[in-house]
Amino acid sequence: MNRYYPVLLAVVLLCHACTSEHGEHANENYDGYSIPDLEKRLATVDAELESLARLSYRGGVGNVGYRSQPHPTKDNTEWIRVDFEQSQTIDQVVLVPSIWRDTKLGFRADGFPKKFNIIAGGKNEPEGKVVASYGEDEPIDIFRVAPLVIDCGGVKADWIKLEAIELTARAWDGRFILQLFEFMAFDGEKNVALRQQVTTSTPYRYEGGGRDKSFVVDGFVPYIMDASHGQQSLAFLSEPGIGEQPHLDLDLGESVPLSRIHLHAIDISDTVPQVTTNDYALPGRIRVLGANQSDFSDAAPLVDFQVKSIYHAGPVFMWNLPESPCRYIRLVAVDPFVRENGANSGTQIGFSEIEIFSKDKNVALGKKVSASFKQVSPERSIDALTDGWNLYGDILPIRQWMNELAHRYALEEERPVVVAELRVRYDKQKNLLKLITWIAAVLAVGIIITILVMRIIRMRQIALIRERLAADLHDELGADIHTIGLL
């Protein structure tokens, strides 16, 4: 067997050389992963993608957040600062990019900063302190279409600021800007930046149209809430002709301290193009009252909001409230939507969902809603207002929705990398298998030849031994005969 050791050693060294030659992978992040590990990771990614909210974009007309003045170079500092009415705890910041429709590459972020800091401070801290920094050690995908989620560790602050220190070029003319659709700051599930005071380093020249600094904290985002689970529910929509100031009443069952109200607009036509506008069935002025008496004799105003233009309309209206103990809620359409359709015209109202929060719990879920009018479309039940679903499935908490979109984007970016790495590994396996097959064939032939040669060598050795034995016998016999002759 010792004669085969050089051959086996050569095979081992050749396999090691082949492994080293093909050892470079598509992505160094997966160097420590085996093929089963990669296959398991791909299955995990696919399973998570099935459970996360989808990136579905709004259509129609609406505002697109804030845009700074343009600059000829990228090395200009622009910032957006949000001041709170009172000190807030912030554990997460969410930046929603403004999205551009590229004619070749599809949807991409536009004007998202390449390097920036998140700075928070108190009333007597004009400089504040940096709570997060991106662009140096933490690279940024400036074309990301999903929200960017930034953990802040529960910092206490009276204001928070996005400071962009390296701008990116906007798509249509290559000039450098800071552009942002929405700035959110969360304390638990509450967006404490919602409808707060905003100041910016430079005003946009065309503020007042679809871009304005106030739009960056109005709660609207460029997405439709499209959860991956839950039942489909058609929004509530009344028939035309429901009076001058129609209202909806909601009994929460008991008096609870209210903290937030979310009002989901009616699902817009899903045709391309849309056959209805984004403010369809939406009152021009919305007033929400809270009371503890069923006749609303002790009613107090909770919300009084005017939809000044199409740019002030969006899929989800959100308001934070000072804690107000209430049992009964009344939503009044002070300036109701008027449908103009010949004989089928008149005032009309419609919403997808009404969410009333006490702390982080939607206390309106499953509660009965009554209306001041009788004409209700049979296909669009008034019970849909508190069923917890929209046209696409479950209605998600806003923070969870943003986090799921961010996580989906990260997984969708990771998946092709994992697939490419697996493809490299599979190709490497195939090449190694081919090589081993050839080596095995060569080794088999070599072993057969070695066996034949060794057999021939042994036969020659045996023949020589026989000749020597015959010669020895012949010499011994001759000596014996000679001895006998002498005797």
What does this entry look like structurally?
It is a single chain. The chain is an alpha+beta fold and 487 residues long. It has helices spanning 5-21, 35-51, 398-486, and strands spanning 56-57, 66-67, 78-96, 99-102, 106-109, 115-121, 129-134, 148-166, 168-169, 176-177, 179-180, 182-187, 190-191, 197-200, 223-224, 236-237, 247-265, 285-291, 300-306, 316-333, 337-339, 346-348, 350-358, 361-362, 369-371, 389-390, 393-394. Strands 16, 17, 18, 19, 20, 23, 24 and 25 form an eight-stranded antiparallel β-sheet that branches. Strands 3, 6, 7, 8, 12, 13 and 14 form a seven-stranded antiparallel β-sheet that branches. Strands 1-15 form a two-stranded antiparallel ribbon. A hairpin with a 2-residue loop joins strand 12 (182-187) and strand 13. Helix 1 packs antiparallel against helix 3 (398-486) and helix 2 packs antiparallel against helix 3. The longest helix is centred in the last third of the chain and has 89 residues, at 398-486. It is elongated and about 160 Å long. The two termini are 55 Å apart. The model is unreliable at 4-26 (pLDDT under 50).
What key phrases describe this protein's structure?
487 residues, 8-stranded antiparallel beta sheet, 27 strands
Radius of gyration: 38 Å
Q: Helical proportion?
A: 25-40%
N-to-C CA distance: 55 Å
Low-confidence stretches: 4-26
Please describe the biggest sheet, giving its number of strands, its sense, and whether it closes into a barrel: 8 strands, antiparallel
pLDDT average, as an integer? 89
